[in-house]
Write a structure and sequence with these properties.
By secondary structure, the protein is α/β, with parallel strands linked by helices. The protein has a domain of 81 residues. Helix content is 38%, strand content 18%. It has 7 helices and 7 strands; from the N terminus they run E-H-E-H-H-E-H-E-H-E-E-H-E-H. It has a 7-stranded parallel β-sheet. It starts with 5 loop residues before the first strand and ends with a helix. InterPro entries: DUF72, UPF0759_sf.
């Protein structure tokens, strides 16, 4: 909170916090701070978005408690889940309008124009990915662009450090999105050896230079 104005909570993927925890965060976080939260694996990996209503109700209650500190709900689909427009559309239609959602699609079958149009109809953001073995598709489907930087493409996922040239390239992309009127949330997930913090700090410097 001293340096950054947003964070992506990853632990929620493994154990969804109680509503009281979201309320405490809302009370403790600065007014301008935004917390994005990764959807539970019970929804994304166990159920694979099938019959999502119970989880949608639970997430919505927690999101209500976070109130004006909420950022984006990240829905990371498992890499084995192939394209299923009907299932994705059913899930997105169940979410309240005030839940801003981004969907990370790792299986290559999702990267089709019809899928991007489906996301756009629900004002859902396509999650732009960077990392080894991941397709880096610079697609925007909503007023908000969500970027996850998992590490340089020539390294293992969640490892390695982005070079200054690579970070400058991402800074240029972020400026382009912002000039187009889009809000950008970008998070580093290459947290081995503290690279995520260092890379995030450097990206902020480049954006403000």
């Amino acid at each position: 909170m001293r340096e950054f104005d947003t964070v992506e909570l990853n632990a929620s993927h493994y154990r969804w916090p109680r509503d009281a925890a979201f309320a405490r965060w809302r009370n403790r976080l600065p007014a301008e701070f935004r917390m994005s939260v990764k959807a539970p694996r019970g929804l994304t990996h166990a159920k694979k978005l099938y019959r999502p209503e119970v989880w949608v109700d639970r997430i919505s209650a927690s999101w209500h408690e976070l109130y004006d500190r909420r950022g984006v709900l990240l829905v990371q689909l498992p890499p084995t889940l192939e394209r299923d427009d009907e299932r994705l559309g059913w899930f997105l239609a169940r979410l309240p309008w005030w839940v801003q959602v981004a969907v990370e699609m790792r299986h290559p079958s999702w990267h089709e124009e019809a899928v991007f149009e489906l996301l756009a109809r629900h004002r859902a953001s396509y999650c732009v990915m960077s990392g080894a073995g991941l397709a880096c598709v610079l697609q925007s489907t909503a007023p908000l662009v969500y970027v996850r930087l998992h590490g340089p493409s020539n390294d293992w996922l969640y490892a390695g450090s982005y070079s200054d040239d690579e970070l400058s390239w991402w800074a240029d992309r972020i400026r382009e999105w912002e000039r187009a009127g889009r809000e950008v949330y970008a998070y580093f997930n290459n947290d081995g050896d503290g690279n995520a913090v260092r890379n995030a700090r450097r990206l902020r410097e480049l954006l403000h230079s």
